[in-house]
Amino acid sequence: MTNPASKPEIDFPTGDAPNELQIRDITVGDGAEAVPGAKVTVHYLGVEFSSGEEFDSSWNRGESIQFPLRGLIQGWQDGIPGMKVGGRRELVIPPHLAYGPAGSGHRLSGQTLIFIIDLLAVN
């Protein structure tokens, strides 16, 4: 079983990037369930689907982060509800649910993104 306290590793993806959000539970939690619009505390790792390059990680900063789901990219708003505290989930998020098409002004626009998220608390 995966230790949720440790930084995950993501295998380099194969095949074509998906056109829709993909949700895969790595570890199913048994705590409180995240609901749409909830405030959550998470650890996460994000990589680009096309290159496998890591672009962000709360583990690298040494602390979890807390935020309301409604303030996040659509892929997180759609992909975290239903997850339970103690769980680890992988989200593969196409550009239209992340930072928009290429040229949208964000450095990750046009990119399909992979996140591994550990849900630590629902506040």
UniProtKB/TrEMBL annotation:
GO molecular function: peptidyl-prolyl cis-trans isomerase activity
EC number(s) stated in the UniProt entry for this protein: 5.2.1.8
Domain of life where this protein originates: Bacteria
Pfam families linked to this entry: FKBP_C (PF00254)
Top-level EC class: isomerase
The reaction(s) this protein catalyses: [protein]-peptidylproline (omega=180) = [protein]-peptidylproline (omega=0)
The keyword Cell wall biogenesis/degradation appears for this protein: no
Keywords of this entry: Isomerase, Rotamase
InterPro entries linked: PPIase_dom_sf (IPR046357), PPIase_FKBP_dom (IPR001179)
Ranges for domain PPIase FKBP-type: 37-123
Family assignment from sequence similarity: Belongs to the FKBP-type PPIase family.
Name the record gives this protein: Peptidyl-prolyl cis-trans isomerase
